[in-house]
Amino acid sequence: MSEKRSSLSPARFLSARRRHRSAGLVVLLFGLLAVGSAYAAFAPDDAVADNSAQSQQIEEGKKLFSVGCSSCHGLNAEGGGNGAGKMAGPSLIGVGAAAVDFQVGTGRMPAMQPGAQIPRKTPAYTQEEIEALAAYIASLAPGPAVPAQDSYDVSKATDEQITRGGELFRTNCTACHNFAGRGGALPNGKYAPSLMGVSEKHIYEAMLTGPQQMPVFSDQVMQPQDKADIIAYLKALQNQKDPGGFGLGRLGPVSEGLWGWLVGIGLLVCVAVWIGAKGVKAKGAKAHE
Amino acid sequence: MSNTQEFPPPVKWVDDRLGIAKIGKKNLRKVFPDHWSFMLGEIALYSFIILILTGTFLTFWFKPSMAEVQYNGSYSLLKGLHMSEAYASTLDITFDVRGGLLVRQIHHWAAVLFIAAMMVHLLRMFFTGAFRKPRELNWLIGFGMLFLGIIEGFIGYGLPDDLLSGTGLRITNGMIQASPIVGTYMNFFIFGGEFPGDEFVSRFFIVHVLLIPGIILGLVTAHLFLVVYHKHTQYAGPGRTQKNVVGYPLFPVYTAKAGGFFFVVFGITALMGALMQINPVWLYGPYNPAEVTAGSQPDWYMGWLEGAVRIFPGFESHFWGITLGWNLLIPALIIPPAFVTLVALYPFIEGWISGDKREHHLLDRPRDVPTRTGVGVGFITFYALLWIGGGNDLIATHFGVSLNHVTWFLRFAVILGPILAFWVARRWAISLQRADYARLTHGLETGVIVRSPEGKYTEKHQPISTYEAYSLTARDRVVPHEIGPETDDNGVRAPRRALNKARAALSRFYFADAVQKPTAQELEEAHEHAHDADEIHELTEDTETYREVTSDRS
């Protein structure tokens, strides 16, 4: 029986066993193998290479995250408590690479201590490390990506764009950030920070992700060109010298009033005291006391 | 007539026609006393002159119109934007008129100084009692100028039609609307329709350049006329009485001093205009009711009003379809007018309380009327706390504190602070009075410790000079107003008893705790005692160190 069987042609062999109880499983395995091989054959090679580099970056980001961020944000960025029932750090799933680049790139993260608002400071990570962290967070769930450089490059902005950016800035931003981007107070110790000296990329990312108290100005709400125009206006404003002398902080009438009293009335009263103390030297008479 | 013949021909020509020699002879020799605090009003006067000069320059280019134009001037950050002609012409003055920005800034700084100087001048009047009879009306005139100056300044702040001034006017508009019943009507009347409309700039302009400056000019004239008529007050000192003025003549001394001071004021204002940027309208952008900016505050003199509105808790009530916004009504329409009325009427209030009908030409030292000084310091504290409230956002960001904490602190401080300040200032003044009293009766502590042969340690006291003693005793004795008997001889109850009782109570509050100057008898006794005592006095724990020790030199 076995000899007879072995002498059968492959076609006869398959045909004879087509009703075998494991035939379906075998066909399925062959099918999967074929699809897998075809995918491997047709998928572009560079994607494979990139994938491995990216996964390496993600891996590195995850390591940095575990060391520097997880104590507040949780081991898997799911958010963490402080042990007293309060949130130490929010979940970072879905915040996107842009948020990481902004928060870590401006030095706000890692935070030194919890408070009403986390201040800007010197960044603790290098740009490479920030990118790794961003890649890791972005790998958890989709979110806004770090904007491409040409989207916030305002070096070639026209006057028209700057003017337009000014209007957009006054409509959307000055209520908190002040007319000259010098920042302003918000309730309960929070504040809108000064925009002076913030890089174009970080301003763009802030609009995109809405860090801390700031609302999100997504690309649907404020189009990329609008964002670029606002940045162009801000940069023009920052580079503009004060034509009227010392700017007094560009804070509005409060600082003007303060300086007016201190310098103006202060000096004038000093002069008045001086004139009042000066006696009259009449001819032949002694100076008045 | 013999004098006029000595005049050179041109002067004689004028004198023959205008009679200036007669006027000049009397007025050029007018004597004014010398003290630095008498020059504070001058700062205000000179600032006003600077305001007229620079303001005239600005009217040459400012276009008081709200017609919409497209900006095509040289400030690139706003190029092509649609805006009112008022704002566009302000930008033109700033960037395209030669010297325009400088003059604009001098104008604005002069406005800041004008009102500040008037206020400091008012405080000097207050604390030295210069408002007492016969100068109550001049106080009112001065107050009128301060009030008008503030309105004038605020209207001027509103003219450029930039985002800041428009926001300020929007708040004013809200305050006007908060007044019950008449609010909306008044608002339509002032703005010619809904805010902002297109009329307010042209209306405010004519009020700003003609109406109010004209009235202020008239008041300045009346104010100075009354200063000449009443003659200037002076601080107590040797040879200075209620009936004379010790000082220097107007010509040449005060023409030089005051004339020179004018140039100093102009110089400092010009330096501020050149070096310190004020009201950078180009940064604010054109007014658009849909926009607002952090740091929207009025100029300093409206800051206290802003503060009152900022710190007042928000609540409103509705009845019969009417909304009453207490959060605006009380801080904007009740507290400020009440405060301002108290300031305006203060001379009459104090006059009524003291019942003092004498004329006063010698000034009080602030310590000598402790309650008045306390009230003044309380008022300043109240004003300053509201001022801080007007900048609560900047306090919060610059000192790293919570905006809410600042606001809540001020809500209590604005009530408790003035009371505390009143009490501290009053006690302080009384202590200083006691020190003066001790100086008069016991002399000056020399700091020289003497050891007697028995081993006792004593401090030597030296009598003060007669000049100083004169200065310290020149003031009047002010005793509380006495309430008469309940009934007269015929048993008829005195009329207005309750009012008189209140008046007597206030008078006690004002004057009962003040230390009166020693009488001649008291002084004599003190000196006698010093002679009796063995030149020096024992310094033990239960001996007052002040007592006695006056040398024979007295």
Number of domains of chain B: 2
Q: How much is the radius of gyration of chain A in Å?
A: 34 Å
Low-confidence stretches of chain A: 283-289
Q: CATH superfamily assignment of the largest domain in chain B? A: Cytochrome Bc1 Complex, Chain C
- Architecture (CATH level 2) name of the largest domain in chain B: Up-down Bundle
Largest interface: A-B, 65 and 73 residues
Write up what this structure looks like:
Chain A is mainly alpha-helical and about 290 residues long. Chain A is built from 13 helices and 4 strands. In chain A, a hairpin with a 5-residue loop joins strand 1 and strand 2 (about 85-90). In chain A, helix 11 packs across helix 12 (about 225-240). Chain A is elongated. With about 550 residues, chain B is mostly helical. Chain B has 2 domains: about 35-365, Cytochrome Bc1 Complex, Chain C (Up-down Bundle), CATH 1.20.810.10; about 425-485 and about 495-530, no CATH class. Helix content of chain B is about 60%, strand content about 5%. Chain B is built from 20 helices and 10 strands. Chain B has helices at about 1-5, 10-20, 20-25, 40-60, 85-95, 100-130, 135-160, 165-180, 185-190, 200-230, 250-275, 280-285, 305-310, 325-355, 370-390, 390-400, 405-440, 465-475, 495-510, 520-530; strands at about 30, 70, 80-85, 235, 250, 315-320, 320-325, 360-365, 445-450, 455-460. Chain B is globular, with a radius of gyration of 29 Å. The interface between A and B is large, with 65 and 73 residues.
